[in-house]
Amino acid sequence: MYSQITSNKRKSFFLIFFFILFILLLGWIFGKITGYGYGGLIMAIVISLMMALVSYYKGDKIALSVSGAKPIKKEENPYVYRLVENLCIAAGLPAPKIYLIPDQAMNAFACGRDPRRSSIALTTGIVEKLENEELEGVISHELSHIKNFDIKLMTITAVLAGVIVLLSDWMMRSFLWGGNRRRGKEGGQIMAIFLIIGLILAILSPLIAQIIQLTISRKREFLADADAALLTRYPEGLARALEKISQSPPVQKASNATAHLYIASPFGKKKSWLTKLFSTHPPIEERVNALRKMIKN
Fold first, then answer.
1. How does pLDDT run across 84-109, given as a tens digit for each residue?
2. Catalytic annotation, residues
3. Which of 80, 121, 193, 286 is the most exposed place for a label (fewest CB within 10 A)?
4. Using the 8-state DSSP alphabet, how is residue 248 labeled?
């Protein structure tokens, strides 16, 4: 379990490092083509940071509101409260706010900036249909997201993805407006090569950014699974919970904006290879196999 956690942290670091290098490459080519230098890159970063600040400080409230989650008190559902409190004690975390989503689908998510300002939302379906050990596995998974600051990490990747999308959009507009013609004549063949590379990157960059962002999200899911198994010392509980969740119908108020927060895709089981490619979560089968390998080892 420790090796699984270490491996996923290392892979996530390299993916973010590649993300930053890709932005620098795109910004450099953008400056060469348009003559803006690094001004365009700086402007893109500033705009993306402004957009991210709203999601960073208010994103948890927005996610909970969009999903229809309602806060509960300890006396309203002592069973769920005891599970969360006991696991928080074991993990050395402050107890998060607990919300229930009135939905018979089985799913859950965590949100917040840090362990002191965090929330966990569980659907009524997952509370009613999972056994005690299975629900413990799900809650431990969400607590692991909080402990590992995954929400903060995904905010960083969202900013990086936003920078790439903005730069590619500006590059496409520069081609359409013809702002690069004068520089193309001055640079001759070298500038023509930059124009071709810039056009290709402008078209493919949003797709590349989304794939990198989804890859990082998937790596964090594997990490949270391993960390949850470490917390409960019972990987089979989470493995069985994931198998049941995979057969659950879609969450009624699921949206693309909050899909990456859930423990599994809130849109139900993916069938085509294309939808699996752009899913925010790794296949349930792979996660279950990884958990059961921990049992064997």
1. 999 999 999 999 999 999 999 999 99
2. 142
3. 193
4. S
